[in-house]
Amino acid sequence: MIGQYRPATEINPGWHIRIQDQDETWTWHEVAMVVETETPAGERRLRFLCKGGREAVALKTDDVMCRTPEEARQAIKEDPGRIS
Questions:
Q1: Strand ranges, E, within the chain
Q2: What whole-number distance in Å separates Cα of residue 69 and Cα of residue 59?
């Protein structure tokens, strides 16, 4: 698996993030948009809107398992039948 934990604030559209599904498996999803939000209590969050309709939310201070577009291309090149 190519990827690493990085600060949530570094993630941009085109990056892939790893999201846990309801069946507790982990899959990669390409980020289409990043939206910054703040709760009434002042908690600052990032919402990752992914291609295919998935969403994920992280605190701005969180580290998130992700890979850059280059790392994603490398992972697919190494194993074209699998992206997770």
A1: 4-7, 16-20, 26-38, 44-50, 55-59, 63-67
A2: 22
Per-residue pLDDT of the chain (84 residues; tens, 9 = 90+): 689 999 999 999 999 999 987 788 888 999 999 999 999 999 999 999 999 999 999 999 999 999 999 999 998 888 766 555
pTM, two decimals, is: 0.85
Q: Where are the alpha helices (DSSP H) in the chain?
A: 69-78
Tell me the one-letter amino acid at 10.
Answer: E
- Give yes or no for a contact between 53 and 39, defined as CB atoms under 8 angstroms apart: no
Cα gap 52→13, rounded to integer Å = 14
User: How many angstroms separate the CA atoms of 36 and 58, rounded?
Assistant: 10
